[in-house]
């Protein structure tokens, strides 16, 4: 594998571990737990994994002999920086317990378990991937592990490879499924433990016990760097409004974090739009007003951050999407037979009058995007909806109308960006490198202590890494009952931006000033400081031109 100078330098980085995970590790059990809501139903559904205590790891002088164990690992869902470090943490953890332990990776996500597609992860392979971004060591996938026949197919290969425990690295849905699997194997006394690990750049898998999902830190720093670069361009050329959509699925955590880092002129927070029952026109008018105010000062430029899930939070759009979801699910066969050019009219005829009117008012591209296939979890694929174009087109129309009425005298030209895939596989920041390695290491300690149905956890993360607290949280503790695909299901609660939370309040306290002033912050690259052979290199083009 050809490596960049940065990869070579980063490979040598030794991630920091919390003190509790160094030396011999002892599991200390806390109080029994209960689910965040719907306790009776969840207890009934998870009789073997409900109510287990919180676990905290401490280091001890005792020496304990652990037998060799085989462990399996799966990367599930979207990529997030640091996944390779979780795997290297598990590897180092189980090898430290017994050098004959083995780690198997299931290829391309949960499907690899069901299809018996796997590889042994040896020291040589692990070393190639330490502190690198991406999930390419074994690949990832979005197959949902939820059916009994999948669990049984998985069990066959787990038994064949003598695997004692499986670590599923995923978001809220994948960890919910990990818990269902843990319960299934426990109920059948299969002798296979299942441990989850909190991954997603979206930042929406967090709660009282899980401070953050891994990858969020790096992804936000990467996006903030690029937005900062755009803001500098914007402030230099002074002729464009940049509409920047940011990944993050439903939650606006990424947009909010980037706003705090770069101080844009506008950042929309979906959760606020919903709470204030704002219409699409309210949002457009709000943006157009800021554009007009800045134009009045001679500033015909600016930046707008847009969370990718926005349309689902505009109440009227939400109602439209809900009806579309039900309609498309019930009429999938008939819809697939309709010619593309007739699909829009067909949908308009079938929807209720209120939703048909909204659907008809949307630009062609956005209307089409709303009718595309859902992901395997039944979600609209929000990353495919070009909200940045929808908003800028509507703002342009509003400004044209204001111009005719003599209310606006500026010039408006827009540029569009979508940042998502650019940040999901970035080289992990020091935080994510340490955090992920610790999560993996903690997972190995949970396995060694016979735990199942737990999510690996690392807390106190704003302190130096040595003071982090590693342990495990029973997954049932994070669950409640929610309606999914028309049925009530036990799921991990998704964490959206809290309007009473400190990050939103800090943003709300500043945004009016940011809208008027040009007080951009340019965070720069996260690897700005470092060895000269990494950071001070000219481009490859220049090096080749100069014969170096
Ligand atoms: P996860 O929830 O699986 O971590 O996905 C993160 C994410 O990057 C979302 O922000 C985005 O909406 C989605 O994946 C895109 O999915 P895909 O990779 O299938 O295009």
From TrEMBL:
Domain Phosphofructokinase per the UniProt entry, residue ranges: 70-340
GO MF assignments: 6-phosphofructokinase activity; ATP binding; diphosphate-fructose-6-phosphate 1-phosphotransferase activity; metal ion binding
Site (Important for catalytic activity and substrate specificity) location in chain: 173
Residues the record marks as site: Important for catalytic activity: 199
Active site location: 202
Keyword hit for Thylakoid: no
Top-tier EC class: transferase
Co-factor requirement: Mg(2+)
Any one GO biological process: response to glucose
Subunit architecture: Homodimer.
Function according to Swiss-Prot or TrEMBL: Catalyzes the phosphorylation of D-fructose 6-phosphate, the first committing step of glycolysis. Uses inorganic phosphate (PPi) as phosphoryl donor instead of ATP like common ATP-dependent phosphofructokinases (ATP-PFKs), which renders the reaction reversible, and can thus function both in glycolysis and gluconeogenesis. Consistently, PPi-PFK can replace the enzymes of both the forward (ATP-PFK) and reverse (fructose-bisphosphatase (FBPase)) reactions.
HAMAP family attached to this UniProt entry: Phosphofructokinase_II_Long
Protein name per its UniProtKB record: Pyrophosphate--fructose 6-phosphate 1-phosphotransferase
Encoding gene (name): pfkA_1
């Amino acid at each position: 594998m050809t490596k960049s100078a940065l990869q070579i330098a980063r490979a040598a980085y030794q991630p920091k571990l919390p003190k509790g995970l160094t030396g011999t590790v002892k599991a200390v059990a806390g109080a029994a737990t209960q689910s965040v809501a719907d306790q009776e139903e969840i207890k009934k559904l998870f009789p073997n994994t409900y109510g287990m205590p919180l676990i905290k790891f401490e280091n001890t002088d005792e020496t304990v002999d652990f037998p060799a164990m085989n462990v399996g690992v799966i990367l599930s869902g979207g990529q997030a920086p640091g996944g390779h470090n979780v795997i290297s943490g598990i590897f180092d953890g189980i090898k430290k317990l017994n050098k004959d332990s083995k780690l198997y990776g299931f290829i391309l996500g949960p499907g690899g378990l069901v299809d018996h597609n796997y590889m042994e992860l040896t020291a040589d392979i692990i070393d190639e991937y330490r502190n690198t971004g991406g999930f390419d060591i074994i690949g990832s996938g979005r197959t949902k592990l939820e059916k009994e026949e999948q669990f049984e197919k998985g069990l066959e290969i787990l038994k064949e490879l003598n695997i004692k425990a499986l670590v599923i690295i995923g978001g809220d849905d994948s960890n919910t499924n990990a818990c269902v699997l843990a319960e299934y194997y426990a109920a059948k006394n299969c002798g296979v433990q299942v441990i989850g690990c909190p991954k997603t750049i979206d930042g929406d898998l967090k709660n009282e016990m899980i401070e953050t999902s891994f990858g969020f830190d790096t992804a936000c720093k990467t996006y903030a760097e690029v937005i900062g670069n755009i803001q500098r361009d914007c402030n230099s050329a002074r002729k464009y409004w940049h509409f920047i959509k940011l990944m993050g699925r439903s939650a606006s955590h990424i947009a909010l974090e980037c706003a705090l880092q770069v101080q844009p002129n506008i950042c929309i927070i979906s959760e606020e739009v919903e709470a204030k029952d704002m219409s699409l026109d309210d949002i457009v008018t709000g943006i157009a007003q800021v554009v007009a105010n800045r134009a009045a000062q001679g500033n015909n430029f600016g930046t707008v951050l847009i969370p990718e899930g926005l349309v689902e939070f505009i109440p009227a759009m939400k109602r439209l999407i809900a009806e579309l979801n039900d309609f498309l699910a019930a009429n999938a066969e008939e819809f697939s037979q309709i010619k593309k050019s007739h699909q829009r009219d067909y949908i308009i005829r079938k929807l209720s009058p209120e939703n048909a009117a909204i659907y008809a008012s949307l630009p062609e591209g956005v209307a089409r995007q709303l009718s595309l296939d859902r992901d395997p979890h039944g979600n609209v694929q929000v990353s495919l909806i070009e909200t940045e174009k929808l908003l800028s087109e509507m703002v342009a129309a509003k400004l044209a109308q204001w111009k005719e009425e003599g209310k606006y005298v500026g010039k408006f030209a827009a540029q569009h960006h979508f940042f998502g895939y650019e940040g999901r596989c970035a080289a992990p920041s020091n935080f994510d490198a340490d955090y992920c390695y610790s999560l993996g290491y903690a997972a190995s300690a949970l396995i060694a202590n016979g735990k199942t149905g737990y999510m690996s956890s690392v807390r106190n993360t704003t302190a130096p890494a040595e003071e982090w607290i590693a342990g495990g949280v029973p997954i049932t503790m994070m669950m409640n009952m929610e309606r999914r695909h028309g049925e009530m299901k036990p799921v991990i609660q998704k964490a959206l931006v809290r309007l009473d939370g400190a990050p939103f309040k800090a943003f709300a306290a500043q945004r009016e000033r940011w809208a008027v002033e040009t007080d951009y912050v340019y965070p720069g690259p996260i690897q700005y400081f470092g060895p000269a052979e990494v950071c001070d290199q000219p481009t490859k083009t220049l090096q080749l031109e100069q014969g170096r």
